[in-house]
Every structure is written in structure tokens, then in C-alpha cells.
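Milestone M4 deliverable, item 7.
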Amino acid sequence: MAETLFSFDKRNYRECQQMFRGTRDQEYYRGDFWIDDGSTIDVRSERKAVGAISIIRQRSAANLFFRRSRQHIREDATDLSILWFVKRGELAFSNQCGNKVARPGDFIITRSMSPFFIECRTGGEGAHEVLHVTVPTHILRAFVRQDFSTGLFMAMERAEMALAETLLTRVFEDETGLGEESARLLVETALGLVGNAIRASEDGAPARQSIADRRLEEVLRFIEVHLSDPQLSTAMVAKGCGISPRYLSFLLRLRETSFSELVWEQRLAKAKAWLSSSDPRDISISEIAYGVGFKSPAHFSRMFKRVFGANPREYRGDCGIDTAEALPGALVPAAEPFPEYPIGSSLLQ
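Output delivered:
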């Protein structure tokens, strides 16, 4: 549930400089904050913390001002980035690079390590509202690779941005007891969507795909969907994608790989990830082997050791007995002969 970060009216608005960071100065960073001495003063900021990230909804019936100078930065080197989703009114931003004004539907990123001045202006309906997210810059860089040191502006016309705002709003407004890990996942997903939208905006219109590119995407999707089927073969993929085996080979050469190399590499990679993320008490090595399309655990074990230098049990670090592998030998299919790597396509027929 969101908590009140600060609330100002006619009675206490002159104390805003001492109160805008919360009761223990735990939010934002040092700067000069003041409120326009107008006829109506009603300012409220509510906060929802998700780990080191805060989602803050700020509503105001008065103009707000904030300035961060080089002196503030010397006194407080907190490196925070703020993602602003402007909903009502305007947000005017000024720094050494110039002046910009964001209006409803615009998105901004500002960073605390460069001096700036912000004015939150009420619109024609006498209200200002933003949803903004404070993120330690080192965390945001994992999602937004572009340079935003002096600010970043863009319109929220991309579907990714609208969805990111919706996710952040849902986390902020949640009163159902959403778990911390789930809230983190949703916030990280929103940040990932923001990063994708910014990257796509800078890249411009996507390059037109050729027919071969589209066919290759279909082939890769079909293989991904049917990877667990031990009968997966070139004939099966070609038929499923409506192409000839010869054309399938041509498409895979565009990726500089063969059918057998692609399939076995994917199976081993997925098995490795599955082993590292699962509990031996929940799923056995044999089940993982069958789950990624191997015909026998023995074949899987030999191939895994050939590629990764350790057998699945050693890699998993499981010192106990794998219950599924301890079943009577009659229940385990016979091992396939182990081919030289890279594996020939005949194994997949």
C-alpha cells in the first residue's frame, strides 16, 4: 500500500524544503524545493517502495519548483534517475543543454548528477499530476543503455511506454498484498519495456524483412516449440513450415549453422539452465533429459560432459541419489551411440 511522502496546504507549505524528502530524508536528493504562493495550495505526494526503487504519484493544485545546483551535487552525490510520466499540467525542464516542456502523454528521464531546474505547472484545469519512478542510476543502466546523463525526452506513443506506465500504476495502487518478488518482477519488466521503447525510437523504423528472414523466423519458432520432441527432424520442420528440406538447409546457412548443430546446442543450453535453476527434489536429471528432447539420460549425460566438461550431476552439485535415475534399468531406454561433435544430421532423422 502506498504511503504519504508529503502533503502541503496553506498551513504548512512554507515548510516544504524541510519535508519534501520524507520524514527521514530518505527520498530524492538535496536541492531547493518551493511552492508557488497562489490562492490554492494543495500538494500531495504518495510513495510505494519496491526494493531500492520508489514509485511516486504527485498531485498538485499549485505550481512547484525544484533546483539542483553543483553545490547540492558536491554536498550529496546520490546518483538517482527519475522517470517521469506526465499526466496533467506541464513539466518544464532546464539544464545546460537547453529548455524543454513535457505535456500530458510525454515521458522524461532526469538524472541527479547534472544541475537542472524543474517547474511543475498546473494546466487549464488547475491541476498538475505526474507518476514518477526514482531509480538508482546503476540499476537503470541495465535497462536503458542510451546516454541520459543530461535528460531524455520522448512521447509516450509507443505501446511499450503505455504498458510500462500501466504496470507501474498497478504496482503503486495494489492493495491486494502483492508479494515483494512479484512487485520487483513487474517493475523490472516496466523498466525493460521503457528501455526497448527508447532503443526502438532511436533506431527509427525497423528494416524491412526479406522473405528469407521471415521464413527463418518461422523455422526457429517451430524448432523452439518442438524442441522436446525426440523425433524432431529436418523433414518434420520443413513440413511444418511449408518449405523443402533443401530450402531449410539454405535458411540455416544464413545463420552459419546446420540443423543438427542448432538443435543439439539449444537442447544442451536449455538443459544447463534447467539444471542450474531447479531443485533435485523437484525434478530429476532424467526428467530434464527427456524434457529437452533426449532419447536417454545416458546419451544426455555423455553429450553434456563433452560440451561442458562435467556430467549433469557434477554440474548440478547434487551429491544425493537421483531417484528417477535409480529406477530399474528396464525402464530406461537404451543409450544411443555418442557421435563426434558437431553432431551429424543423421541423429535427428
